[in-house]
Amino acid sequence: MKLQPRILLILVPLVVAPLLLLSWVAYAQLRKTAEEKTFQQVDTVLDQLARQIQSELQSTEANIQLFANSPLLVRYLTTASATERYALIQPALMRLFHSYQRAYPDYGEIRLLLPNGDEDARVTTFASTTPLDRAADAALLSTFAKTQSDIDSMFVHGNGGELMLVVAKRLLFRDPASDPTTAPPTLRGYLVITHQLGALREQMVQYHDNLGAVLLVTDPGRTALSSEPDVATTPDPAIFTVLKQRDGQHVLGSYQNAAAYFLAHRVHPGLYAVAVLPEYLLRESMQGLTTAAASILLAVLVITVLLIVFGLRVLFLTPIATLNQAVRAFGQGNFIVPIGLQRHDEIGTLAESFRRMAKNLQRSNEQIRHVAYHDSLTGLPNRHMFREYLANVLNDSIRSKQRLALLYLDVDNFKQVNDTLGHHVGDKLLKEIAKRLTHCLRNETGRIDAAPDAAVDMVARLGGDEFIVLLPHLYESQDADIVAQRILAEMAGPFTLDARDFHVTSSIGIAYYPENGSDADLLIKHADIAMYHAKSSGKNNRQFFTDALRQATDTRYQLEQDLRRALEQNQFVLHYQPQVELASGRIRGVEALVRWCHPLRGVVLPDEFIPLAEETGLILPLGRWIIEQACRQAREWQDAGIDGVRLYVNISNVQLNREPVWELLAQSMQRFGIAGARIGVEFTETSMLTAPGHGVELIRRLREHGIAVSLDDFGTGYSSLNNLRRFALDSLKIDRSFVFDVHQSADSAAIVAAIIALAKSFNLAVIAEGVENTQQLTHLAALGCDGVQGNLFGEALCADDITELFLGVGSGSPAELVRRYVS
Amino acid sequence: MDVVGRLSMLSILALLCVTASGAPSSAAEKQLVVLTWADYIDPQVIAEFERLQHAKVKFMYFESDDDRDDLLTQNNGSGYDVVLADGISVTTYADVGWLAPIPQASIPNLKHIDRRWRSAFPRVRQYGVPYFWGTIGIAYRRDKVPTEFNSWMDLYRPQPALRGKILMIKHARDVIGMALKALGYSQNSGDPAQLAQARELLLAQKPFVRAYSYVSLSKESALVTGEVWAAMVFSGDSITLRELDPNIAFVIPKEGSNLGVDYFTIMKSSTNKALAAAFINFIHDPQRNARIARFVHYATPNLAAQRYLPSAYFKDPIIYPSQVTLKNFEFFAPLAPPAAKLRNEIFQTLLQ
Questions:
Q1: What CA–CA distance (Å, rounded) separates A534 from A798?
Q2: Which residues in chain B have their CB less than 8 angstroms from residue A66's CB?
């Protein structure tokens, strides 16, 4: 279920239920009030009606008093002469009455009755018949006679049945001419005003129209005035008994066969103003109220729900949807999507947080990108970025048929700097190199114009001391060469690090697209090959990748393949070259030299394949095989009873770095059950220096187990005297380059002499290798060399041959040679 | 009615009394208050009288006979020196006791007056001096009515075209009396049956009657403007009307009419009875009387004045109807009280 219906499901009943309750209470109250108000209204009208009737009555009584005092009337009644009375005064009197009538149009009749009840004068507005006949007058007078008052009034029904107010006044005068002033006034007649209640009825009709209630002026017997057109049914007389006791209250009864409320006010003894309010009318008016209340409630509910929905949307759902959308966009890596929310509430804060988060994410992303794509040390693009960039540029170049060049650069003697001066200096050097490389780019110097909108040059660090430069959109192939030359020149300048000047050189290999390949890997590989070519061509130069190089590479590749196969097919054999002790002429040991019996090429010497094996790592399995093979041979010799001969094994620096050499040796020695005294190892100076802990620990172990350790190729490396001291060696091996002309060159002889002197001071034995003739042998012996090795004493021999030599089976033994040439 | 209303009504009555009684005494010179019809005397003659007598004649006018009755009744006959009244009213006023007997000696010109008029009504010989006599008839617009008039029935039971075009005098004796005459009865009838017929006739006529009021004698008269086509008028006034518009004809209906005589009377309450007598005598000076006659277009009872009138005056049948015409004429006679009461009632109903 979504949020909106869920919130509505909770919120709407919460709002609606109190609203319903409230409106029900209000409705009930309203209904009660409305009912009461209606009754009160009716009651007010009734009261008004009653007052009106009473007021009419009072007014008429006041007027009759006034009329009766008219001098004309007095004169009329006191005039004895009938002639005078009727001929002269009566017309005037009637005119007076008439004027009264004009002033009071409700006075339907103004009459003068004689004491005996005869009518003497009358002005009337009644169309034809007199409403009150002689009998009615007599009844009137007999009622009047019972009262003491001068004025009497009564409501009577006319001949037509309509109610009229009849007000009569006794006319009592003294005759001023004949009666003494003390005499009581004589009854001269009655002044009678018949008050029509038509105006009152009209008023009642108006009230009826306003209220909807039938208004009656009635007595319990007969309805006199009704607001309805036809004089209607008289209400049940029983109503009046109730009404009499409850003035102003309403009573439910029946009127014209329908339920109706009755309200009454007493107007005059026996006369009531009655309102008949049909019950259905009250119900109808309540129905209007009910409908109105229901409509208002419905409208309020609809509006409320709409407002809630609207508010919900405006306040929550739409912002949430907006945020959701934005967050989804963030999720897709688009951090610059604007969040369309400008609010100052919690959601606004949330949006702001999202914005901030997006900004941070973007920054982090950029950082990550930067870290991922850049070399942390130099700040240059790294291999990864370079590969991507190259792929793009290459695509462009393929499309636009442009040339491009890759410059593969390797710092020639960086390793030395790093090894001798430490990493921090090396790092500084790398930074400086990166800076200089960057300066050499075309777009940096502007010396070589790049095509507009073209991709720019890039220099990247591939790792270690290897850099690569991409030169896209080349117009001419010389351009790459110019850049390469410039780089070489730049690099030639001294680097000042820690207040010291360093000189480094670099080798650059250049490969072109499309000539040297059309895919990135190949181009990089070819540039790399060209760089190696530069290195092998004496370093500090640049080389272009050529077909010859490709061929050499292919050859090398073939060799590598053959080498792998050779390991699998056990094409290697160990040959052994003896070492002769000059003092005794005896063979003190042999150096195991590996030979590859290539199926097609015949025997291949180590110089041809060991560097490749070291490069490819094949040296490791080969080295293991050599150790094992050497130990087996040593066991064979032990079994054959050949003692006092050590078997020396060469350990490559690759092995030292990547293999637990001691463990391998120990394992093999144990397996073949030979003692350390039968085994020796040879390292080069350089490999010792690069080995972990400078091999000190390894040498210590070896020596502990009786294994002899010899330093090979001494004199060619950078070894210091200090190292010589630290390494607890058995012997040194003078490099063959010194031995080669020791008998001809004083310099070489001096060096050999110095080495020997040095070795002696450290108590080391000195072995010279590469001894090929007797002159050399004589010189070396003279210089104090302890032992020699070389073709003079035989080439390296296979195991069987060397075994025969040990057993003295062959001719020309070493001892004989020594004897002859060493004095 | 409230107290204030009652008080104001009383004060108005009081004010009227003061005005009526205080007027004569307030004048420095002698003043004669005369109650009469308007335009019923030549103002030059009055001016002459005032000059000769060094007196002021103050005229008060009534609009109808009933009006005069009311005025007199209100003050019980006081407030006036000389009152002009028709013959039967003189009888009534004399009976009520408002009038002073007029000594023959005080009016020397009485000798010129035709005896016939002096005894036409009870007690007029003693209390009144005839002024003019005339009759009542129908004045009508000859150019408007469909047919010529010659009967009271032409007025009382008129053609449909005359609806709302008739004026009737506001005087019960004339209106009811002529209705009785139209029905062929005496104008003085007291027979309730005949009066009932007259009542019916009058009520039937009512829708045709524009108003119960006397016609105006000016250019603006409804008869001249044509608002009214027929009216009950006194004979002399018809001549005035004819002079205003020749299309106004006058007829004395064939059923006859009332022979009306106006008398000057002197009020019992008058304090200027000598001046009053002198006034009456002055206007009956033959020469002056003739001048007044020509002014009012009525027949004068002053035989001596006739010498000063042109013969054409006598030959005008309107002023002097022929003896044949006069055959059906009647004087008003006193009515018995029940009859009077009945007529009052009829007339009141009519005016309602």
A1: 38
A2: 1, 5-6, 9
